[in-house]
Amino acid sequence: MRLLARRLLQLGVVFVVVTFFTVWLISLVPGDPAVVVIPFDDPQETQRTAFREDNNLDRPIPVQWALWAKDFVRGDFGNYYTSTGTSPVSDRIGSALPISLLIVLYVQVFSLLVAVPLAVWAAYRSGSRLDKLLNAGAFGCISLPAFATVLILTYYLGVQMNWLPTEGYVPFGDGPIDHFKSVAIPVFALSLGQIAVYMRLLRSDLVATLQEDFILMAKAKGISNSRVLWRHALRPSSLTLLTVAGLSVGTLIGGALVVEFLLRIPGMGFMIGEAVLTRQYVALQSAVALIAIGFVLINFLIDYLYTVLDPRIRERSS
Amino acid sequence: MSQPSSPTPQILGATDDGEAEAAIAPAAALDSEVGGRKKGWGLGAWLAAGWLILIVGSAILAPILPLNDPTAEVAQKRLAPFQPGGPLLGADANGRDLLSRTIYGARTSLVIAVCAIGLGLLIGGLLGLLAGYFRNWLGNSLVSLFDILLAIPQLVLALSLVSVLKGNPADTESFRLPVTLTLIIALGIVSIPLLARITRASTLSWSQREFVTAARAQGATHSRILFREVLPNVLPAMVSIALLGMAIAIVAEGGLAILGASVEPPTATWGTMIATGKTDLEEAPFIVWIPVAAIFLTATSLNYLGDVIRDRFDVRESAL
Lengths: 318, 320
Description:
heterodimer, A: MetI-like fold, two-stranded antiparallel sheet, B: mainly alpha, MetI-like fold, elongated
């Protein structure tokens, strides 16, 4: 319980610092933020005045943060400022967030489904040519940025072969086949690096576990190789993988931003990219805060899951 | 059976002893000792070093090399590579020489990566040393600081910093930092926790060794122990993670450029070459393939050399 309390406190501190940072961001803008966000003609200064008031720019930053946090918790994420008027950011986030979450979920599931069997295979045949081949392949995949994979796949599978759409997103409800076709390139591109990381990590943990006495014991009892690998070795080896899978959500979100933007998939990445290009800092601020909070929560949950899964940690912390 | 690289599967999560490092730098998490054989200075390392020397050398020598002006229209638009009379690697949508843009792009991309990681190493390395050496309130609060910095996904943090510091490019009145400097600062800040955590993990194990105790028993000051005893041993870990960090920074610049947060045209970086070339993907894909290949080769080489150094000096973040 003490551990849980400590983690909750940490979570609170991270939340405050991160959101404080995002609120402080706007004051870093060179020049008058109101003019930068609203560059178009605003003869009566009505929009700009509204912008300054909405974001309490004349107040000290701690006050700005408190007022912002109050709105944020209530789901008021600020406004977009366009020449035709203002529109709430929450509407966009409401439609963009599920798309991004779905893509990240697909990537994690797909990467683990591919990486775990490969890792078990490589660990079982550790030191063989196959192991070396998988290692070299993983090394190449790690150095290949997701945006490069997207461009390559878009060109060969989209433009040349015409198998997959080169941009856009189809919701699941509008046809499952079209939906999976529209997410195939981003999911595969983002998975490639994850597969490599997960595979290498699990392989080295598995190789270590396979040296342990209880494996020898299991083998001595005449349990089949596959049962030893999948039942006895995999479980104690998968703990690191779990943490890394959680932490890599951060990398994944970053990769997804670029990939979504390239493929014009209207997720968070596309929204953030657009906000950057049109200098909509309020939208940027809310999106960044939301992503950071989600990321912290995921890792908090994984930490907690750990104490549930592994009794050794519970003992050590009490 | 080969010697396993980490003695037992680590018990992670509740505390933070070195598990996150593996995830932050994916390539660092790789166990490169396949079959128990160490990755030596073999053919791969020569190829990697050769490519880096070639690209760094041509980037430095770019002004005196017989290259076309990278911002001038010198050939037919979207001219394919290897055409007689045309530029060696062809021309982009504005008829600019792709070879010279790649080399001048390397100048900017590499300066950004090297300076950003240099900045990160200076600050992050120092904080990591302190955090690993002083295992008291100072060490603990530094670790919490790294955790907080890591709570914002790195590319998102860099993107927000660059786009905000960049302001409105059309605004010439208010003072704005040069975009290259903005990128260096943003990527430098982002790399601090990464570099700090690896340095800390390595410091943690070295500062418990006998020679440190001996130095302390002889009455050496903290700063002497830190910089004369611990730092030289931690250095290989720092160098290897710095190489990986540069690979990440080069890729990150590419990502930022695609999101519209890199240098302004007509200056070339590998990222902006991809960002502007992607509209021609259907008709002239080579405009994108050339910078993509440059990023991939450079990132692979840096990752590989980082790994070689790790193995040579027996750096094992994951086993700490």
